[in-house]
């Protein structure tokens, strides 16, 4: 690695722990080093280094033909990324906040997701960016976007919960020949409690495989992203009452690892789904019907969910805290389910 | 409701910049200046969000908006102040307290703290704030509102402020094209960016030409020249002559009060405004802002449960049972006792 | 009604049966007559009368300030409709095909759905247009769009299956103070078998209430739109074997009438959901988890679904027929479930 | 693969309209004319969709596209023929059979009949067809492809045809703005609408000016003048001088073959092309189209199951169990025997 590498991509090399944000920077840097077809597009990602500084120092190393500051036109530059992908490049598009992916909804669902299907070949393209609430960002800087895309055949959706997964999954996403939506929770970016030392060698984590974050016997909690941490906190609280929760971290939402969910459910008989996104039309529904299709007879209680309230993300801190699902909500629901 | 501070008549609509308007602009300018200082203080002392420590007001935007017809009954002109709030909002009759409530996320704000910061909407005042990510939405929405004015034959127009980087967004082009095609009474102001280079490539005058709509450029001129530009655009607009695109040139960073100070001086020297009157105006503005800040401190935050109700008029988004009223864990009730987890 | 009314809006007046398309035209015409705030926007809806001729003759009667031919810019004119709604008008926006709603996704989900919430007041606006497959329209003229909006708090979604409902629901939608997405299946527009004589008086059908299309005891089929007809055909076939299916027509998808679904499920103990839209992330999931939450102990078998395949809508007729759910699929699934 | 008809050299790229290119254009024009007639016949006899009874080809689009550098190896220029397919597609080396396969939804089409009609993509040929509703997507995509050419320093450019109503769509503006900002080798052709008024309000030359990109207008001129306009735009493009916007004026309805006939006449009189050669070219074109139509009739439809697999490279969307392999209704198997209802 050349000496001009910025600090946030050299921590693993020197054996130091990294945050989720640094893990993402490292993945981007290493993939750009490894494969000259990989390039970045986004608003203010060059000289400014990005709103969250994920790409600080990248412009100096890779130059303006691989680190492209775009106009403020998410639809337009996502469409352009698709054209570059047709020609064999591997664009990684940053949304400054993932909320701003909505002007690119048309091109993502109609053009990009259907490319292979229409005979236009593979579409190796990643759209990544920060998601999630808890930062007092109000309705347009706090959304989770998975359900805007979960219904579209041809897309993949990844949502990591920790540095190791973030790095390995982002590398897999960049190497994947399909378009991937990659969600990064702002609340995890710099969270001190989830810094960790990563393997120094190149590694990937395959898309589509969930991870057991905690083993247990009494109920299964299926979750992802920041809610993995809330669920683990809840599990610790439940453990004090002798309730052993199993926590499954989905990591990839599409394709969904229904095998892993079914395996855990068959062990525990109880299924609670926890997501930060709002309730109606959230991913919990799809999980519920797949478990009906695959594991109905193992259910010893209803499939339940803990989610945000059906509302835009509120501006005020008090309202936002009320809106978001909390550890206490998970504990309450889990207790109810175990006692069912 | 806070009392309406003296010196401001939101319903007056002068065709030219007479002395009454001049005094009003002086008042608005001072009000903006004091509000700016107060907001920065409150941000530094963490009453308001730390980002607001850089809060500032462009007085030219106040002058531009003052050339429209304000109102407090939902029947005046419409303004999207965009990145230039609060200048235009004040010119449209918003009080400093109303503004502060939004900045602070108070339960008393018109959005009950569900939305806030620089983004606020109050249709009674004729103010439509950000309601989406950037992307031209405001221009489309105001074009549609202006269509309603024209359809009903009303003497009303709409003013939308955007940064010039709006040119990069397709949504803005669709809004302007539609406004031009329907010939609605819309005035679109594109302001130079406050920070950075804005990655702009487009020539605004040529943009107006491409849509066949009127164009004007205003800059470091005195309010005497900015005001009539908008007044003329508004006249054309309500006469059915269609939209105008106005380029508001960069005021620079250091000189953002230059215009107002020059204007105050002019009012004294040319219009013969007595120094004492100027001083009274200044004091009234300061008092209004201080009153607002004091009152703000006493106002409550939002009520969590009630604030989140109006997502959909007939949908009370009450919390799922897992969140608020769970059955006791050791007495699993019959399923029905759980009640709907979420009512529509 | 003045004499200049076009043929397709005068059939009920003269006691003749109407198609779904005519019912929609009548609803629009009568609402425009009743309330001068109602106006129409869309591509080629004026002089040309619309791609499907729903608004033929409207321009002559209501003039160009209430029947507006827009540029081809769905995002832009939907945003403009929102502004007109703020000012007290009641816009009804036509998408030439509902597939083209995707460029308006941003303004619908961010601006329009959040209006009331942001303190910007009611948003009485309807976006309507043709949906659905079976017409060899290929991937961009055949989509169902409900799941693009089902996850957005603040929107309502209506999807009628017959002329009577179409007229009554569209009138309710226009009178509603919330934004409504109104889906009209092309396969029903002129279907001769679902012409019917409508009440001659003004009537509305409230949003949010499902309808029992067929009473039965052995299983519940929950469905909507064109699939109501497929499900009724399947029910007729099942009846020959003595299986009595209950068919529930949702009519409104958001808000979802979970009460009606639960009531039927509690009677039959078996639930099959049938939708034309693709499978993963379809509405069946939300129904499944709500029934877990409300009626788990009444389930005598897994909640199952019959849907289209997870793929864009195919161009070729052979592929499209294979892709779409058919009567045979419903029969097979129902038999399985009843025998469970 | 159908044999490459004689008379067409997709890889040649003349800088000027020499006699080789002239003969090629004659061939392409006849080919388009015969294809047009054949498609209309097939539509009337219901082999093709009834809508195609109005199928027609604009020969000017063929000339424009022929000034680009075709290819069959995925390394030539790129073209989105848009509403003017198949003229440009033929100029890019597509065979009539390939075209007919798409129109007919044959399993042998490059999209295995999953997509078809006038919309088709074949990257080997450098053709990118419609892949979304109208809305400027094609212009964005080709701008991005052109960016790839420039980034790799390749001698390639991209050509996109849209109707002039593309100006109404914000997505188109975003694509052109980006192309201009990045200075990519893109040529954007806006053709007059074929039907209706197009509800256009924008002035295309002013649009080019607003984005600071080059502009040219081509119309009823002879190919000698259309061809060098594009050739010059292409030269500028690959020299790093950025995009060009070309307005293609209405050819009218009745006279759509005028250009080609005039051109054929010119080739005989001015270039001294022997009548027999012209005749041979005409016959070769007719034979190629007839060959294609005959072969089409023998080709199979798509295989239902296999055709739907490639939605996502590693996701076989096999039908849910409720659709294809249900367990016998009277022998409810243990749940697991159902298998996954849908594999990822
Ligand atoms: C659709 C959308 N994309 C991106 C953003 C994020 N964003 C907010 S302000 C801004 C920069 C604006 O730059 P400019 O217009 O130059 O204004 P300045 O801040 O420099 O005054 C960006 C990218 C957004 N809010 N909405
Ligand atoms: C986003 C989108 N909106 C609408 C349509 C439907 N549509 C297809 S062609 C067309 C009319 C195009 O008019 P014009 O550009 O004048 O071309 P003409 O057919 O008259 O040549 C429309 C509205 C579409 N395909 N995509
Ligand atoms: Mg800037
Ligand atoms: Mg036209």
Topology:
The complex is a heterotetramer, with two copies of chain A (340 residues) and two copies of chain B (344 residues).
Chain A: H1 20-34, E1 38-42, H2 58-62, E2 67-69, H3 74-86, E3 90-94, H4 105-112, E4 126-131, H5 146-149, E5 156-158, H6 163-175, E6 180-185, H7 186-189, E7 211-214, E8 219-223, H8 226-239, E9 245-249, E10 252-254, H9 258-268, E11 271-278, H10 283-295, E12 304-308, H11 317-323, H12 327-338
Parallel strand pairs in A: 1-2, 1-3, 3-4, 4-6, 5-6, 8-9, 8-11, 11-12
Antiparallel strand pairs in A: 5-10, 7-9
Chain B: H1 19-44, H2 59-66, E1 78-80, H3 87-91, H4 96-104, H5 137-151, E2 158-163, H6 170-182, E3 186-191, H7 204-210, E4 214-218, H8 223-241, E5 244-248, H9 258-269, H10 275-298, H11 304-307
Bound molecules: thiamine diphosphate (2 copies) and magnesium ion (2 copies).
Description:
- The complex is a heterotetramer, with two copies of chain A (340 residues) and two copies of chain B (344 residues).
- Helices cover 35% and strands 17% of the residues of chain A.
- By secondary structure, chain A is of the alpha/beta class.
- Chain A has two domains: 7-194, Thiamin diphosphate (ThDP)-binding fold, Pyr/PP domains (Rossmann fold), CATH 3.40.50; 211-338, Rossmann fold, CATH 3.40.50.
- Chain A has a seven-stranded mixed sheet with strand order 2-1-3-4-6-5-10, sandwiched between helices. A five-stranded mixed sheet of chain A has the order 7-9-8-11-12, with helices on both faces.
- In chain A, helix 8 (226-239) packs across helix 12 (327-338) and helix 9 (258-268) packs across helix 10 (283-295).
- The longest helix of chain A is centred in the first third of the chain and has 15 residues, at 20-34.
- Chain B is an alpha/beta fold and 344 residues long.
- Chain B has a single domain (19-304), classed as Thiamin diphosphate (ThDP)-binding fold, Pyr/PP domains (Rossmann fold).
- Chain B has a five-stranded parallel sheet, with helices on both faces.
- The longest helix of chain B has 26 residues, at 19-44.
- Chain B starts with 18 loop residues before the first helix and ends in a 37-residue tail after the last helix.
- Chains in contact: A-B, A-C, A-D, B-C, B-D, C-D.
- At the A-D interface, helix 3, helix 4 and helix 10 of A face helix 5 and helix 6 of D.
- The structure holds thiamine diphosphate (2 copies) and magnesium ion (MG) (2 copies).
- Residues 193, 195-196, 198 of chain B line the site of one magnesium ion.
